[in-house]
Amino acid sequence: MLRSGRAEITAIVVILVAVMSALGFVYHYDNANQEKAAGNNTSMEPVQFSGGLQPLGQPYAGNITVALVFNASNQQRLLSLLSNLYDPYSSQFGKYLTISQFDSNFSPSATFYQSAINYFENFGIHNFTTFSSRLVLGLYGTAAQIGEAFNTSLLGGQTDFGPSTTPELPAWLASVTSSVIGLAEATASFAGLSYKSLGNADQASTEVVGYPQPIIRNGVEYIYGPDLQVSYNETKLFGPNYDKGAVVATILWSGYRNGTSGAKIPVGPYNPSVIYDYFNSTFPSGMPHPQIYAVPVNGAPPPGTSANYDVTGASLENTLDLEMAGSMLPGGTVFNVYAPSNNLANLTLAFSSTLSPPAGAPTALQNVSVISNSWGTGDMTYSSWNTLLMQAAARGITVLASTGDSGDNANSSKYIPGNPNYVQFPSTVAYDTFGVVAVGGTSVVINSNTLSSQYLEIVNSSAWYIPQSDTSLGGPIGTTGGISSFYPEPSWQAASIANSVIGGKGRGVPDIGAIANNTIILFENSTSGEQQYSVGGTSVSSPVEAGIIASIDLYLVRDDQPLLGFLDPEIYRLGNYQYNSSAQAPPGFLPAFYPVPYGRNHLYNAHYGYDLLTGMGSIDAYNLAVDSITKLYSVNFTEKGLPPSSLWNVSVDSHFKSTENSSVVFTLANGTYSFFVSDSGRYAPSPQFSTFTVNGKNISISLTFKYGYYAQFNESGLPSGMEWSIQTNNGSYKGTSSTSAIRMILPNGTYEYEPNASDPNYIGKNGSVTVHGNNIYQNVTFILGQFNVTFIESGLPPGYTWQVTASNSTANVTESSNDTSLNFYLYGGTYQFQVNYSRNYVPNQTFLILNTNGKNQVVHIGFLFGYEIVFVGSGLDKGVNWSIDIGNIEYYGNTTNLTLFEPNGTYYYTVNAPANYTVVKKSGNFTVNGSNVTVVIEFVKQRGFVGKLDLAFILIGLGVVIAIGIAISYRKR
After folding, report:
1. In the prediction, which pLDDT does 21 show?
2. Which end of the chain is more exposed for a tag (fewer CB within 10 A), N or C?
3. Amino acid 965: pLDDT
4. Peptide linkage before 687 cis (omega within 30 of 0)
C-alpha cells in the first residue's frame, strides 16, 4: 500500500513538473538578463525596434549588427530651426549648419554616449561603430550577448531571427533611444535592376561635340550616361572647372562569392578600373571625369577586382550608381558609402557615416550635398531615420531614394511581399521640413541625329513600365508609385496640384522621375570580362538626379545662394507654378520639369502635371537652378490718416508685421503675393486687402485709414463653425469669421456687399448697406443650393436602360434612363455615385465620388460589352462572406460563386479570405478574349491549434485531470 501510494504521488509530481515546463516554455523569462541589468541600479523600459517578435524557435547562434539611434538633444529647437532654414522670409533662410555646429547644438552629450558604450561592454560587447554626432551607435556581437543586453533572447532559424520578448534597456538609456535596428532580421533589396549585355561592339566611337552617339539596335535606342548632361539641360550650369567641388554619396552594400566549401566570401563593391574606363570612353575630350572614393562601413571589403566575382548583383548595382552619378558630375566627387550586407542596421550605419564621416575618410565627404539610395524595403514607420534626415536637412543635404520597380504589380519579380500599397521605404519618408525626395522612372527617347541642332535633347518621355506580356523584357516591371499609409500628406503636397491626386490620403510618391530604361553602363565579371550592358530601373533614376542636383547646388553656391537642401517643398512650389493654371508664376519663371504625360503602370496612368508614376516629371537642371535663385526686394507699406503712435499691422501671405510707425517693410523674392491690413481701433484702411507682384525691383504700397463705425453682419443658414466672409465694394473691405457674426469698421458711405461661405454649395444673397455716423446691423441668410449632376453615356445600344445611384449621409437617389443622358437635381455636397451594369455592358467607372462645389456638373460614362466572369470559391462553407479586389473595386459574395462582367482585357485580382480560412493562391490574373471566364479559388479552412499557448493550456488541463483522477483512485484505496 505504501509502495503504491509513493508511485502515485511520484506520478502526480511528474505531471506537475511537465505542466510547469509547458508554462515555462510559453512564458520564457530570462532571469539572468534581469539580474545583470539590475546591476546598473535602474529600472528597465521597453524600446522601439524594427521588425517583430519571434516567440518560437531555437536560440539564434550567429553574430549580428545592431544600430541604436538616439534622439537629438534640443529636438524641438531643431524642428524650429528646420522651419526657418527653408523659409525665405526668415533671417535664418539657407544658413545651414556645419558638422561641428550641428554636433555642438544637437548631439547627445559625450558623457551619455560613453555611458551607453560602457553599458554594452558589461555584456561582453566590445566592437562598436561610433560617430562624432553621437546620434548613432553600432554594436557587433554574438546573438546571446546582444539579446542579454536588451533583456531578451534572440530566437530563429538559420538566417531569420528576432527577440522573443519586447527589448528593454535601462530607463536612462531607453528614454533617449529613438529606435533599435537589427534585433530582428530586416533586409533591403535593390530598387530593381534589369540588364542585358550589349557586348564589346558599338563602343562610344562616334562623337559629335564630344558626346557619344546613342546605339540603335532593332529599333531600340540605348543611351550613354554623359549624353544625359545635354538631355536634362545640365551643360549650362558648368563653370570653368565643370563640377569641381560638387559632392555626391551613394549608399549601398557589397556582395560575396561562393567559396569551394559553400562559404560566402565577401568581395569588393566595384572594380575602380572599370568605372574609369567608362568615363574615359564616354566623356567628351577635355571634360574631366569625377573622382570616385570608397567608404567601407563596419568591416566591408575594399573595392577591387574581387568585385568581378560577385554573385549577388551588388557589384553591378554599385557600378551603375557610380557611373550614372559620375556621368552627371564631370570634375566632381562621388563617394560610395557601403555596408558589408543589406540589413537595415548596416544601411543605417552607412547613412550615419555619410553625415558624420569616420576617421580616415577623405575630407571632401564633409562637403556632400546629395545622398542617393538605390534600394528599398516594405513601407513602414522607421522613426530612427527621422533623426538622421533632420540632421541632413539642417546641413543642407538633399536625400534621394528610388521608388522601386514592381510597377505596382504583385506579380512582378520586384514586388516586396506583404507590402499592399507597393510604395517603399525610404522613398516614402517625408514631413513638412525634412525627408526624402522619391525618384520614379521614365522611358526616355532622345534625338540621336548627329546633324540635328537638337542632338541628344529629349524627344519623348513616358512612364517606365514593361507589362506582364513582355516576359522577354522581364515584365512585369516598372516605376512604382502610390500613397503611403504610414506617412501623412505633407503640407507642400497638400498646397499644390498634387493634392487633387493624393486627396489627403497620405504621402504620395514619387516626387520626380528620371530615365530608367536602356541606359548603357560598363561592367566586368569573371566569366564575360568587361562589356557594355543596357540597364533599366529606378536604380538608374536616383543617381542620375543626384548628379544633377549636386551640379545645381554648385551653380547656386557660385551665385552666393544656399544649397537646395531638403528639396521637396521647392519641387512642389515650382511644379505648381508650371502645371497649375490658377497659380501665378513669378516673373522670369522657367518650366522646371520635363513633363511625362504618357504611359502607365499596373495601377496608374500618367498625365500632364503631377501623377503617382513620375511625380512632377524630370528636372530641367538649368531652369530649376534659375528658378531657385532667391533675390529679395523691399515692399514698403506706408500709411496716412492714423493718429500718432497708433498700432497697425499688415499680413503678407502667412507673414505678419506690426508697427507704430508710418511704414512697415517686407523683404520678398519675385512673385505675386496677397496682403491684408487690419483695422486700427476705429480706423479702417483702404485698400484693406489686395495682391501685388514683385518683379525684380522694390515697390511701395500706400494705405489710407479713415475713421469708421461698426458694421455687424449676422448670418443664418450655415452649419455651426463653417467659415464665411463679407466683401464690400468689389473687395475694398473684408471680414471673415467662423462664428455667426462678422463685425467690420466702415467709414461713412454706401457699400455693396457679397457674402461667401467656405463651402461654395451654400449661397448667400448680395445686398447693400449705408453707414452715416452710426453703427449698423445687417442680417445675411445662406441657403444650401441645388445643382444638376448630368451623366452622359456612350457605348450602349439604342434603347438599353441604364441606372445610376447617388448617395450620401442624407440622400439615396436612383435615376434610370434609356436615352444617352440622365440627370440628378441634388442639394450641394459630396456624393458617391454607383453606375450599374446595363445587361452585359460594363461602365468604365463603377464608383466615383463627386462634390457639386457650387455649380452644375457633367460626368461622361463609357460602356463596353462585358463577358461573364465567375469566381468559384472551392472549400467554403455555405453562406461565408468573401470578396475579390480587381483594380480599386471590391466585389463581395456569400455564395460559392461570385459573378461579375468585364470587357476584353487582362485583369489582376486579389482574394480576401474570410476569417478562419486561408487561400491557396491569393492573387492572379485572367484574360477576357471574346468569351466567358471561370476562375477557381481554393480555400482551406484552418484547423488545429493556433499556437503554443493553446497547446500549453491543453497540456495543463490534461495534466490536472490526470492528477485529480490519480488522487481519487488513491483515496478509494
Report:
1. 44
2. N
3. 57
4. yes
